[in-house]
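User: I'm new to structure prediction. If I give you an amino acid sequence, what do you actually give back? Let's try with this one:
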Amino acid sequence: MIKCTGMILMLLATVVAPATADVPRPRRMIVIGDSLLAGFGSGGLVKRGAVGQVDSAPAQIARRARVRLPQPVMHAPGLPPPYAIVDANRNGRLEAGDVRRQEGLGFRSHQGTRARNLAVPGETIDSLFEEIAPQTIAGDLVRGRNVTGRQILKFHILGLPLQAAGVSQVSRAHDLEPSFILVWIGNNDVLPMASHTDPTAARRTPAEFATRFRQLLNALADTGAGMAVANLPDPTGVARLRHAADEVASCTAPDGTTQPVAADDLLDISLALASLPVPPCGKVLSASERAQVRATVLAFNAEIAAAIVDVSARRNVRIVPVDLFALFEQAASAGIDLDGDGAPDVTRGYLGGLFSLDGIHPTRTGQALIANAFIDAINVGFNECIRRVKVRRVAAHDRLVNNRFRPAGDPPFGLIQDDGVDVTEAAFDNIESKADHLGDTLHDRLGDIIDGINGLF
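Assistant: Good question. You get back a string of structure tokens that encode the predicted 3D arrangement of the chain. For your 457 residues, that looks like this:
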């Protein structure tokens, strides 16, 4: 294992930090981000499981740094419950519909604890500024009024303990007076290009994203806390996309003509079986379209890098970059060797060890790799000596590494039951469908507080 002094010398050239900045420690660390830092995996959010919040990258960083990181953990079976493999015919092979969401719905544990991991699944560079009104959402849930799944999940993460004022990730960051901030946001701004197989589907242009991202870093710089800020992976490298191979040779264009599909073109594994073997061409991501997506992501990352340099210098706040684009590129191209035998132990393929059952969010092992990327940057930029996560040990206990259902090639189409092309929207739909149950649970847990809020009922 590389000692911290050696690591600092090796990585020093990548650090962006003003020489006069104070060096804060991560003793009061908070987390700003989306599902990837929230510990969301296999389509669900739950405290413990094959992928759980206790094994999120921030949680693993906190344990290695020996600091507390209160999280908004969800009771089993989760909010929403994650997917599981159901081998109904016991043939030992993955088939269409074998990955299914578990039944039931969990609730936030420790409602009186103010969480420091503020990452909310589904958040974009815009939505993390958007405030929710916790008392209003609580009242609407209890009274059976319409509340979206997105609002319900954000309420469980940011809205408890119940408060009168509106709250967002940014406003809560100021309230918590952090000494250190982990930031990874923008994944949901570029993911639609892959999940919708449309290279024009980014939620913002790079220039628009840059403006908002600088606003974020400036808002967080107001706290005076140091930051570790990650860039964005290429979303076309997720396990959710599979090759056309010999199963799809052509597609139907909008004008009704049939167009050829190359064997290495990509399609979503949730593609409806009824649309095969000749799906709409809009469901296919060609090599040239993948190049467009990659160019857009690189443009986003250039803006992230420029914002880090600019805000760090102007605000005299130490900010270090974390290159997660490179980490995921390594997994996609050559895989990651954990035991030094020269063979990859973790790859980007379905059940290859990096991605969980939804094909987008990391496994416990993937989270450990992400944690180490942050730790390396923090050790260099803040002269820390946080021990790296022992990824090989994590992988040895990860049910989604060397899983017996791992397909030899691409996974089957229609693998995930009752899922659409957007895994977070599927999660929100599941939560929203059980809002009445959540309202009853909320009143049971917080009834005295809710009933005491003047004007709520």
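You can read the tokens as a compact description of the fold. Here is one thing that stands out. Residues 8-15, 17-24, 452-457 have pLDDT under 50 and may be disordered.
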